[in-house]
Amino acid sequence: MRKEELYKAIGDISEQTIAEAHTIQKKKAPWVKWGALAACLCLLIAIPVVLHQTSETPHEVIDPSSDGTGPAGLTVNGIKYLISSYVSVSDELPAGFSYAGEADVGGFENCSYYVNPDVPEWVYVRQEVLTDGTVDATGTLNRTEPHDAYVRYVDVRLRGKDLVCYNDEHYISMWSAQYYGDTPDVTREYYEEMESKHSIRIEGDVPDGFISAGTAEFTGHDTVPRGELSSNQGAHEVYVNPNEPDVVLVPTYWHTHTKEEGKETRHEGFDIYIRYDCPLE
User: Which of 201, 139, 179 has the alpha carbon at shortest distance from 278?
Assistant: First the structure.
């Protein structure tokens, strides 16, 4: 990817686009799920990461996907990291992170990267960007002059995952849960059992037996929510059912525009979250 192409990709992405892509994705095979997001999430893509050993920490290269559209990444201490699904750019290195080595990332050479033992799910890479990571009133990323900044890379097990923590138990949206690959969130048998029983999303009023547990604290994107009630996807109300301990519900809405409808129709309902089995500690 040439720098000009990289800058165009950065300039065109927006939080609204990310949210819309997340809303329309369907639970299909892995390549379908990635394809629905690829156009808006690939900030730095299709470039293998070449690492320069500077310590005894084990590293390896993660190749992009076979069609050349996968996000760039690196492995540190056996954990794979991919560039954040959200545009996370900082002029200052976040507190607690320290230098761990250098890598050629996204066409830029000798980029320093930084780790924090207290936040093992993140790695920051210092590289050239054309945005400060903020958006304007229309949801479009603000452009800047080319400059070096710290860009967040996220544990592949966490990247793009919608999580709720309720009473110190983690739940994952069935939209983002996966039962395939090297780092599945749940088993296929469990996923299919829950999909058969509850579907992925339901339309209409809250089902009988579910009551509000309160409003989840928003812990921030790319985080692992913890505590009594929290979420990494916003301060949403969460509904629980004592007789259904494997499920929590989060209100949502979506739009359709079919030939039969003849216009855009708004639907309201609930996304279904199921128990999350992937350890992120």
Answer: 179
Strand pairing report for 265-275 and 229-231: unpaired
Token duo for residue 15: 């939080």
Six-digit token pair at 259?
């030939």
The helix or strand, by DSSP H or E, that contains position 99, with its residue range, turns out to be strand 98-105
SS3 92: coil
Which residue do the tokens 């979506």 mark? Answer: 254
The SS3 call for residue 216 is: coil
Which residues contact residue 104 at a Cβ distance below 8 angstroms, ignoring those fewer than 6 apart? 47, 49, 50, 51, 110, 111
pTM for this prediction = 0.72
User: Which residues are CB-contacts of 127 (< 8 A; sequence separation ≥ 6)?
Assistant: 44, 105, 106, 108, 111, 148, 149, 151
d(CA 83, CA 35): 16
Q: How many CB atoms neighbour CB 112 within 10 A?
A: 17
Which of 80, 60, 184 is CA-nearest to residue 122?
80
Q: What are 272's two structure tokens?
A: 């279904």
- Residue with tokens 């979420």, as numbered in its chain: 231
Q: How do the pLDDT tens digits run along the chain, 281 residues long?
A: 444 444 444 444 444 444 433 333 333 333 333 333 333 333 333 233 333 333 333 333 333 433 455 677 777 888 888 889 888 899 999 999 999 998 877 677 788 999 999 999 999 999 888 888 888 888 788 899 999 999 999 998 899 899 999 999 999 999 999 998 888 899 999 999 999 999 999 999 999 999 999 999 999 999 999 999 999 999 999 999 999 999 999 999 999 888 887 888 999 999 999 998 776 65
